[in-house]
Design goal:
295 residues, mainly alpha, 3-stranded antiparallel sheet, elongated, Putative HNH homing endonuclease
Length: 295
């Protein structure tokens, strides 16, 4: 059942708001109950007047927002100490202004904040969690913030799971189960093999195609943008001419087959180490995927 106000109660509610506005230096622009203050009550039926939680009140705050009309309700305005949010924030700021906290208080506040972060509800999205954030930051640091394929700092760096995080819970946040990549390589890999489940053998296959297929390689490298050193901050798109020099053995090349072969060896070793940490049901899934890939 919806609660409606009586005309006499609406009048009292409006007069109270007007009285409070004088004390708080606020100006009334519009009040839904204003019409009931100068009219005879019998003209209005009691079931036509909205309750004070819904009845609209438009107010101007001279101190904080003299040019802005703030919308609130009679209920919120009359029950609060300051009437408006801007005045409440100002009041809190004045109370804390110049306040000095002891070392013990600061320590307790810090411990309380850490406890809240450590015990807050787990996010529904695995990538929106404290554990994932810590894993990603540590992986980027271990990878020197460089793409493992080009050996340089790309414009956008991402961290790739060798064993996909959704299907392989046992090593979801294992730092060995990570590889720093340019988002271009990362997106292309997942476009080719999907997002879940993924295993290192798929990434090894991706590296082999990168080395053997020049047109595939050129297409990817043309999209890469590397961050320049602090001496020359301009971003440079890797041109097809640079790619040609890379294939010819330029010392400054970004495509280095030796680097990719070393990465291939490294991922192979990581794959063997990580496989030992998997649950039995996860090992069965790996074998099934290897059969599909014919590895």
């Amino acid at each position: 059942m919806v609660y409606h106000l009586k005309p006499e109660d609406a009048k009292k509610c409006h007069l109270k708001a007007e009285s409070l506005m004088k004390e708080r230096l606020h100006i009334l622009k519009y009040g839904e109950y204003e019409k009931y203050t100068n009219s005879k009550f019998e003209k209005f039926e009691k079931h036509t007047i909205r309750n004070e939680r819904d009845a609209v009140l438009h107010v101007i705050c001279i101190q904080h927002h003299p040019e802005k009309i703030i919308e609130t309700t009679y209920h919120n305005y009359n029950r609060s100490k300051t009437g408006l949010k801007c005045c409440g924030n100002s009041s809190k700021g004045n109370k804390l202004k110049g306040r000095v906290f002891s070392k013990e208080t600061i320590r307790k506040m810090s411990n309380s904040a850490k406890f809240f972060q450590a015990t807050r509800p787990r996010a529904k999205d695995l990538r929106d969690s404290i554990e994932y954030d810590d894993w990603r930051k540590k992986a980027q640091m271990l990878g020197s913030y460089k793409c493992s394929i080009i050996g340089d700092h790309p414009e956008k760096l991402v961290v790739h799971h060798l064993f996909s995080m959704k299907s392989f819970e046992s090593i979801r946040y294992d730092f060995q189960n990570s590889l720093t990549l340019s988002d271009t390589f990362h997106k292309n890999f997942h476009d080719k093999y999907g997002y879940d489940p993924n295993i290192p053998q798929q990434f090894l296959k991706f590296l082999e195609i990168l080395i053997s297929d020049k047109s595939f390689r050129d297409n990817l490298f043309q999209k890469i943008i590397v961050r320049k050193s602090s001496k020359n901050k301009k971003k440079e798109l890797i041109s097809s001419q640079t790619l040609q020099e890379c294939d010819e053995g330029s010392e400054t090349r970004l495509y280095d087959p030796k680097r990719i072969m070393k990465l291939h060896e490294r991922v192979t070793k990581l794959s063997e180490q990580l496989y030992k940490k998997l649950y039995e049901k996860e090992k069965i899934l790996v074998k099934q995927l290897c059969d599909i890939l014919m590895i």
